[in-house]
Amino acid sequence: MGVQKYVSDVKILSWSNDIVYDRLSNLEFLNSLFNPDNLEQAKQQMGDKADKFNIENFTADRDSCSFTISPVGKIGLRIVERQELKSLKISNDAGPIDFTIWIQILPVDNFYSKLRLTIHTELNMMMKMMVGKKLKEGINQIAEGFTQIPFGSIPSAN
Fold first, then answer.
1. Virtual CA dihedral for 130, 101, 138, 105, nearest 10 degrees?
2. 30: how many CB neighbours lie within 10 A of its CB?
3. What structural domains does the chain harbor?
4. Is 138 helix (H, G, I), strand (E, B) or coil?
5. Is residue 122 within 8 Å of residue 5, measured between CB atoms?
6. Which residues contact 105 (CB under 8 A, 6 or more apart)?
7. Mean pLDDT value of segment 113-117
8. d(CA 37, CA 44)
9. What are 93-111's pLDDT values in tens digits?
10. C-beta atoms surrounding 52 within 10 Å
11. What is the per-residue pLDDT for 51?
């Protein structure tokens, strides 16, 4: 077994890196994104794909969040490192696979920033063959999802 690394494409966000970092460095902002009304709206937009992933029991505080997602099970995430205005490292507390996500945020100018996600996980060769491509696709989908978050309209909790 060895540590595998999956890196997203670089995405441009329509928010400054200080706003993006401020919101992401406090996971409480996720409570507003994952409230039942927003989840229901997202399911409607996803159509047939909504049946594949169902998020329930979402809770978040400053440093951690947890939720149940079918068919995976319970997932717990915790911020383990913050580098002011530059990056966050988030590890899982609970779930079927150990991983760490590194979120890098760089300024473009006063109004835009760049974001890149990297996931590190330890997979044996069989698991790498089974889920490697899905992890690469998934990390890019998550990065793309960050471009849709209205960071500026989310109240700062810091």
1. -150
2. 20
3. 2-149 (3.30.530.20)
4. helix
5. no
6. 17, 20, 21, 24, 85, 86, 87, 113, 114, 115
7. 97
8. 11
9. 877 778 899 999 999 999 9
10. 10
11. 59
